[in-house]
Amino acid sequence: xxxxxxxxxFQQNVAQRLRDLASRRTVSSKLGFQVGDENWLVTLSxxxxxxxxxxxxxxxxxxAWFRGVANIRGxxxxxxxxxxxxxxxxxGPGMERRVILISxxxxxxxxxxxxxxxxLRNPEQLVPETTTACADRPWIKGSxxxxxxxxxxxxxxxxxxxxxxxxxxxxxxxxxxxxxxxxAAQ
Length: 186
Description:
The protein has a single domain (30-170), classed as CATH 2.40.50.180. It is 22% helix and 33% strand. The chain has helices at residues 7-23, 82-85, 157-161, 164-167, 176-185, and strands at residues 30-35, 38-43, 47-52, 66-72, 75-81, 98-102, 110-114, 116-121, 127-128, 140-145, 151-155. It has a six-stranded mixed beta sheet with strand order 8-1-2-11-10-9.
């Protein structure tokens, strides 16, 4: 037979469990991934999904780091080779490659091609590096070392999503059409 509890006991039990939960420290994990030979971290709320590399269709007149567009569940996503974007070589073939889909609240329909996923990391186990901000890569929020001494960069996805270099995927074309357009504008 089930034990009957009074309303007062139930309320006290719930209140105690709420106090216990409030007293626990919450640790926000970061998602780890690799791009070339660099390790990266990203805030989970900035990522909507991680998927295997989809078939992409190249887009003419775009920069080499812009891999093209992919149809993911009926929606078009732009796919950027994050290594090539940073001028650190292209992401080669491999079964471990993934596309990190950026949260829609930051930028609609965009994903980053990365070398491989490294799983969740606890930020409390990382020691901040005292290096200054990287002027040529303003999307690096900070750098850290893990207990093994491995360097990790934290990706600031809101900064990347608002960066004009990231948003401008078209190649600059010099030629007769550009010259004619310049003359017409004068």
